[in-house]
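Milestone M4 deliverable, item 7.
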Amino acid sequence: MRQSWFIRFVMVILLVVFAIGTTILFYADQDLELAAFIGLLTICLALWVVSLLCSKFVVSEQEIVSYKWFRKKRLKLSDIKAIQHSALWGGSIILRDSRKAITIPTEYAGSAEFVKHLVDKLGSEFCSSATYGIRIREKEMISKQKG
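Output delivered:
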C-alpha cells in the first residue's frame, strides 16, 4: 500500500515547478529574500516528496512491513495487541504490539482491502476501530465526489 500514483506524480511535478521557480528568482537578482523563501519551501517540499516516495506498506499472510524513509518495521499479525483509529491528518489505523506500533494512513490506496484482510485474520470485533476508520474515510470520499 502506498499513496496513489496520481498524488506521487503531482507532488513530483510541483517540486520541479518550485525548483525551477527558485532558480529563476535567484538568477533574476530581483528579490533575493523571496528567492530564499521559495528555496526554503522547495527544500521542505523535497523532503516531503522523498518521504512520500519512500513510504509504503507490504502486507502478507503473516506480517506487515512498514517502510518509511530508510527504516523498516515488521509486525506479525499474531503479535498485534491493539488496533486503534486516529482522526489526525485525515485518519490512520494504528497497529500495536507490546513494543512498537505501525501507523497506516487511511488515504493510502488499498487501505480498505487491508482492513478486510485484518478482519479475516483477526476477527471483526478486534478490528472494529479499523473498520470504523475506513467507513469514515469512505463517507468523506463520497461527500467530496458529490460536492
